[in-house]
Design a protein that fits this description.
Elements (H helix, E strand, L loop, with lengths): L2 H6 L7 H6 L2 H4 L6 E3 L3 H5 L7 H21 L1 H24 L1 E3 L10 H12 L9 H13 L7 H20 L5 H19 L2 H8 L5 H10 L1
Parallel strand pairs: 1-2
Helix pairs in contact: 5-6, 5-8, 5-9, 6-8, 6-10, 8-9, 8-10
Length: about 220
C-alpha cells in the first residue's frame, strides 16, 4: 500500500457516522410526550427560505472538513470524529428520553427555495430537535479548526463563516429553536473537553515543537 493511500485509510472510520445515523429515523416521531422549547425570541426570528442553502450544504461541509482534518492533522481528526460520534449517541439518547418539536410555517409550492424547504420538511419530521445535530457538528468543526494553527486565517474564516451560517440557518428555516442550539454547543464543549483528556490526545498536547506530519505519524501508529 502506498504511503499516500495509507495516510487516508483512517477516513474509513467516518463510516461509523452513517451507521449511527440509522438510529435517527426510528426516533423521529411524535409518539409519547413531546415538548416545545420555543421562546418569545424564537417567535421573532423570521422565516427566510434562502437559508435552506447553507442548511443543505451542511452535509458536504462536514465530510469535507473531516477529510481536511485527516489529511492535515490526525490528532484533530480523531478527536473531532470521536467527539462527533459520542455527540450523535448522546443526542439519540436525549431524543428517547426528551422528545421536542418545532412548529413549521406553511409554505407555497412554487420557487426553487420553497421546494427545497418542502423537501426537507417532507423527509425530516419536526422532531429530534434538542439538541440540534446540525449545530452540534457545525460547531464541532469550529473547535477542530481552532486546533490547526498551520491553517491560514482565510481558511479559518471560511470555516467559521460556513459553520455559523449553517447554525443560523436552523433558525431561519424553522428546523430548530435557540435552546436546541445552546444545548448542542454545551454538549460539544463537554464532550470535546472529555475526549481531550484521553491519554493519546493528552500526550500529544503535552509535546512541544512537534510538527503536524509527526503528529500524523504518531496517530497512524496507534
Amino acid at each position: 500500500m502506498s504511503s499516500k493511500l495509507k495516510a487516508y485509510t483512517p477516513l474509513l472510520w467516518v463510516l461509523v457516522i452513517p451507521v449511527l445515523n440509522l438510529l435517527y429515523a426510528p426516533l423521529n416521531h411524535g409518539k409519547g410526550t413531546v415538548s416545545s422549547l420555543m421562546t418569545d425570541l424564537d417567535k421573532q426570528i423570521p422565516f427566510i427560505p434562502a437559508f435552506i442553502v447553507p442548511y443543505l450544504l451542511w452535509y458536504p461541509f462536514i465530510i469535507i472538513m473531516l477529510i481536511i482534518f485527516c489529511a492535515n492533522n490526525k490528532r484533530v481528526y480523531y478527536r473531532t470524529l470521536l467527539t462527533q460520534c459520542l455527540g450523535l449517541i448522546s443526542c439519540y439518547l436525549i431524543y428517547v428520553l426528551f422528545q421536542t418539536t418545532v412548529p413549521r410555517p406553511s409554505i407555497p409550492d412554487y420557487g426553487v427555495l420553497y421546494k427545497l424547504v418542502g423537501f426537507v420538511y417532507n423527509t425530516d419530521e419536526p422532531f429530534n430537535c434538542f439538541p440540534s445535530i446540525h449545530v452540534l457538528t457545525s460547531y464541532l468543526m469550529i473547535k477542530g479548526v481552532s486546533l490547526c494553527p498551520h491553517f491560514s486565517k482565510l481558511v479559518r474564516l471560511v470555516v467559521f463563516a460556513c459553520s455559523w451560517s449553517i447554525i443560523c440557518s436552523t433558525f431561519f428555516v424553522k428546523q430548530h429553536v435557540l435552546l436546541d442550539a445552546a444545548g448542542a454547543i454545551a454538549l460539544v464543549e463537554m464532550l470535546w473537553f472529555a475526549v481531550g483528556r484521553l491519554s493519546p490526545f493528552k500526550e500529544m498536547s503535552m509535546q512541544k515543537g512537534v510538527s503536524p506530519s509527526e503528529k500524523n505519524e504518531y496517530f497512524d501508529r496507534r
